[in-house]
Amino acid sequence: MTAGKIAAHIQHTNVRPEASRTDVQRLLAESLEHGFNGAMVNPIWLPLAAAALKGSSVRVCTALDFPMGGATTATVAGQAAEAVRAGAQEIDVMTKVGWLKAGMEGEYRAHLAAVVSAAEGAPVKAMLEAGLLTSDELARAVELAVEAGVSYVKNSSGFGGGDATPQLVSELRRLAAGRVGVKASGGIRTRGDAEALLEAGADLLGSSAGVRIVAGAAGPAPSDAY
Questions:
Q1: Mean pLDDT, the chain, as a whole number?
Q2: What does the pLDDT read at residue 219?
Q3: Would residue 154 show up in a list of annotated catalytic residues for this protein?
């Protein structure tokens, strides 16, 4: 698989709390240079990203309510609407893992549906935190996310365990059954990682190591890549 084809699936990411303006500008420049699918930034950097990526094929992406997922539905829906106004073209959102485990399936689904509605057509990706779920819970999480109208299911925020593996991506692909896309995230640090996940059925890859992946750098990946 060529570097260009891999890059077209990567959402190059820096959502670290300490990311500075210079760090984000570097991420955006790298996204343009390598033709990544998207650039994932925290909401505070959306105006900067929208201006830098205007007119390009690189999607402006942001993540909401992570890694804890503890905000109310009204709060997160409001954040989604604000993010779209600020230039977000795609939104990754944490799911309510505790609600799912408590059997509160209606609340879990309604939360995601509210975010989808607030996003006004911008694709929403549901971060399922598969590492915290049983196989039965994962199946229900996918089903409820699909019912809520999300565009993608995502195995993990990258911070809650459950890093992407070919086996997990393949299972998400099976559960989604072509109704929504699959985004892989967490632990994607090398070209080999990326190729294996794409071959397993991932549509998108979220990684902070996008440049390293497309450059095919040798040696161990940095431990702080996510």
A1: 95
A2: 47
A3: yes
